[in-house]
Every structure is written in C-alpha cells, then in structure tokens.
Amino acid sequence: MAAKEASIMEGPGAGEENLGVTNGKIGMWTFLVMDAMTFAGILAGYARIRWGSPADAPWPDPLDAFGVVGIQLTAFNTFVLICSSVFMVHVLAEQMRGNMEAAQKWLMATIFGGMIFLGIQAFEWTHLIIDKFGLVVLAGCNENFPATFYLLTGFHGLHVAVGVIYNTFLLVMMRRGKVTEEHTSTTEIAGLYWHFVDLVWILVFTFVYLIPVHPPGS
Questions:
Q1: Where are the alpha helices (DSSP H) in 128-183?
Q2: In the prediction, which pLDDT does 59 show?
Q3: Is the pTM for the entire model greater than 0.70?
Q4: Pseudo-torsion of CA 47, 216, 53, 199, nearest 10°?
C-alpha cells in the first residue's frame, strides 16, 4: 500500500508530466506560443500598413526616420540584450555546477543588461517624440508610422520590464536560499522567457530599423 502511494506521488501530480517535463515548463511554453502569435499578428499588421502606404503618404525609410546614429544606438542596444541572454545561459550553467554565488553574479549581469536596454529605449523615445517624429509626419509621411513604431517597441519593452522584475525576484530567492542548485527548472523557466524576449527583439529590430521601404535597385 505504501509503495502504491509513493508511485502516485512520483507521477504527474507531483509536478512532472509523463515525458518528464515539469508543469511549469509546459505552462511557460504555452504562454510563449500564444505571445509569439500576438507578436506575429502585430508584425503582420505593421508590414501590411507599411508596404501598403499610398503614394501621397509614403512610409519613411529607416535612415530618414531614425538617422544613422539612431540605428547604430539601437544596434548597440540589441547587442546589450543579446549579451544579457548569454549571461542567462551562464546563470543556469553555474547553478547546475552548484556554484550559486557565480550564478547570482551572472543573474545580476542579466538584470543589469535588461535595465540598460530599457534606459536606452527610454532615451530613444524621448528624442524621437521631441525632435524627430513630429517633423517626419509634418513632412508628408504616413501618420501610422509613429503609432506602429510605439506599439511594437513599447509592447516589447513591456516584456523586457516584466523579465527584469521576474529575474530580480529569482535573484532574491537565490540569495534567501529558496532557489538552490536543486531548482534548475525554476531558472530554466525564467531563461525561456528571457531568450524569447531576445529573439522577438531581433525580429522587431530587423523589420523596423533595417529593412528599407524601397530596396536598392527597385
């Protein structure tokens, strides 16, 4: 009877699915799939509006809208976010080795990278709102350009902010000893979210900042 009860506790009800994947990971993957569909819909709408702009209200090319310096700054911000994603890999690696002190240091670097990203984005928004986008719209460009830009980058920025809070909470739990080398699944779940945020930004950066409206030679 005792053996039967033990087998029940070791089954899916104890937090593991039949394939050995924790319920937390399944939940995070489910959320990420739905969130990816949301981003896909927004990007598709952005593409439709951008490449369907009428001739009398053209869509500005990235160089006209952001300038070389603006694109370079955002490229650096993209590099920062990619580095923070790499740092998150080190968090899990050190945790699996049982070196929780090093894991916490890498997690702090991950959080700091996310904060730098948000700070640069806030600086960019301030500059574009005050000095740039008003001039672009008044110059006869498509008025949907600022709206779609703020929607895409702002929605992603919200995800980064949530990730920073999520990772900060994880760091506090590590310092309090609530998350140890035995709780790698907890860190993996946080890592899945952070890597997703990184991947989505690469797509947003490419669509918004790099692809010209009229490719050379067209």
A1: 133-138, 144-175
A2: 87
A3: yes
A4: 20
